[in-house]
């Protein structure tokens, strides 16, 4: 039997004083056990409800996702049917024309062959029959239809693959973007982005200094600040047709969009989703056709403003780069500054929030060529120097910094009836996904 010094105190009391203290201790322990079992029962019930809720929510989400994928597949299937029908229609039209030419030419050749054969069978002494055969050969030669139209200069249905390729690019970009949103950025990625933003801010602290964002630089440098722009359909004017979230074209017939308080009503404009308020952002736009303006607009700017004040760059709440079919220019607060640079179908936009600057670049062969960097210049003390500043820069000095007190959105204005643009995929090569005309 173990010594008393190794036994629990309550058991020692039992050995020395009887069973009454043990009964009290037993009641106390049993009571605590009962309380703990009640707590565990309630907790188990809650955990079971949580498990059931998770399973139910996951099942419902699976059903929603499956339904949406089925709808997306139906849309793609319908588009596939439309494209294949377009090819078949083009093929039938062109084949009908070409096969008709072929049939007429074969018939003429057959007539000529028969007439020539008949003429060869006439004896030379039979001059009357010979003249008749020669006349028949000449008539067969004259009644010919001439050469065919030849191969067509362009097969209209071959542009179908370009359209499908554009859809594939949009889907690929959208799937990658939404996949990243689902997974969320990792800690290292967030830290890298924070460091890049800090370095960029440090480089551009002096307003009049030159840095990588102001000079020619490899495109890879700007891709560190890449921002995925998706068009917001709730802001699109009724005369703008969206192609997914990346393409937009101005059309003649209005589109029956649903009512939205953020929709432009007097200007053919559309904004990007999401508002920007800190850091450095870079995106690219491909000008496919027409007069196009690209830039930024304050999130709180009223989309019901009239045409003269609501257009991109014609107010203090927005600024832009415009291509008017002949030349580039920049607009801010109703003033325009022409640019001497030649046309570039791909334009890069870099928004430096901490430095309160917006830069536009021509993108060619992996290189960035600065078109214009909009920024308020350092205050000048000399009134003589101040009076020599161009009106556009003076307007920037007075009002441009105020634009950055607001949350900004990528903005697009399609000015001409044939205007068409595409938000470029931010990849290593800058190759159009659509055919430029």
UniProtKB/TrEMBL annotation:
Keywords: Coiled coil, Cytoplasm, Metal-binding, Nucleus, Phosphoprotein, Transferase, Ubl conjugation pathway, Zinc, Zinc-finger. One of its GO terms (cellular component) is cytoplasm. Residues 177-215 are annotated as: Disordered. Coiled coil: none annotated. Its EC number is 2.3.2.27. Pathway: Protein modification; protein ubiquitination. It comes from the Eukaryota. It is found in: Cytoplasm; Nucleus. It is an enzyme of class 2 (transferase). One of its GO terms (molecular function) is zinc ion binding. Its main location: cytoplasm. InterPro entries: B30.2/SPRY (IPR001870), B30.2/SPRY_sf (IPR043136), Butyrophylin_SPRY (IPR003879), ConA-like_dom_sf (IPR013320), E3_ubiq-ligase_TRIM/RNF (IPR051051), PRY (IPR006574), SPRY_dom (IPR003877), TRIM47_SPRY_PRY (IPR042780). Gene3D superfamilies: 2.60.120.920. Residues 192-208 have a biased composition (Basic and acidic residues). SMART domains: PRY. PANTHER family: B-BOX DOMAIN CONTAINING, E3 UBIQUITIN-PROTEIN LIGASE TRIM47. This is RING-type E3 ubiquitin transferase. It comes from Leptonychotes weddellii (Weddell seal). The gene is TRIM47.
């Amino acid at each position: 039997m173990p010594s008393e010094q190794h036994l629990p105190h309550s058991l020692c009391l039992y050995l020395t004083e009887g069973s009454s203290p043990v009964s009290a201790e037993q009641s106390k322990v049993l009571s605590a056990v009962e309380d703990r079992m009640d707590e565990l029962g309630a907790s188990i019930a809650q955990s079971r409800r949580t498990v059931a809720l998770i399973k139910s929510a996951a099942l419902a989400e699976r059903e929603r996702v499956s339904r949406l994928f089925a709808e997306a597949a139906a849309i793609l299937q319908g588009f596939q049917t439309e494209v294949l029908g377009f090819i078949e229609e083009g093929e039938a039209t062109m084949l009908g024309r070409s096969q008709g030419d072929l049939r007429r030419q074969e018939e003429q050749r057959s007539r000529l062959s028969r007439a020539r054969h008949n003429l060869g069978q006439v004896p030379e002494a039979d001059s009357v029959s010979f003249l008749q055969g020669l006349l028949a050969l000449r008539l067969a030669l004259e009644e010919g239809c001439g050469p065919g139209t030849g191969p067509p200069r362009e097969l209209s249905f071959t542009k179908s693959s370009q359209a499908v390729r554009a859809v594939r690019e949009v889907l690929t970009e959208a799937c990658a973007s939404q996949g990243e949103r689902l997974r969320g950025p990792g800690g290292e990625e967030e830290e890298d982005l924070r460091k890049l933003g800090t370095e960029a801010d440090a480089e551009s602290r002096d307003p009049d200094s030159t840095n990588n964002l102001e000079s020619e630089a490899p495109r890879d440098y700007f891709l560190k600040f890449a921002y995925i722009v998706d068009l917001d359909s709730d802001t699109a004017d009724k005369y703008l047709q969206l192609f997914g979230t990346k393409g937009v074209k101005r059309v003649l017939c209005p589109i029956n969009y649903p009512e939205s308080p953020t929709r432009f009503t007097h200007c053919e404009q559309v904004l990007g989703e999401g508002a920007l308020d800190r850091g450095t952002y870079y995106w690219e736009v491909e000008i496919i056709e027409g007069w196009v303006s690209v830039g930024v607009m304050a999130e709180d700017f009223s989309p019901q403003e009239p045409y003269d004040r609501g257009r991109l760059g014609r107010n203090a709440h927005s600024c832009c780069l415009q291509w008017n079919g002949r030349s580039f220019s920049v607009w801010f607060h109703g003033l325009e500054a022409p640019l001497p640079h030649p046309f570039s179908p791909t334009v890069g936009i870099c928004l430096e929030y901490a430095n309160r600057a917006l830069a536009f670049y021509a993108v060619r062969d992996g290189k960035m060529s600065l078109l214009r960097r909009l920024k308020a210049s350092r205050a000048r003390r000399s009134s003589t120097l101040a009076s020599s500043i161009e009106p556009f820069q003076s307007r920037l000095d007075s009002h441009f910094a105020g634009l950055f007190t607001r949350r900004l959105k990528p903005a697009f204005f399609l000015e001409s009836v044939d205007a068409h643009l595409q938000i470029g995929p931010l990849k290593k090569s800058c190759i159009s996904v659509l055919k430029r005309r």
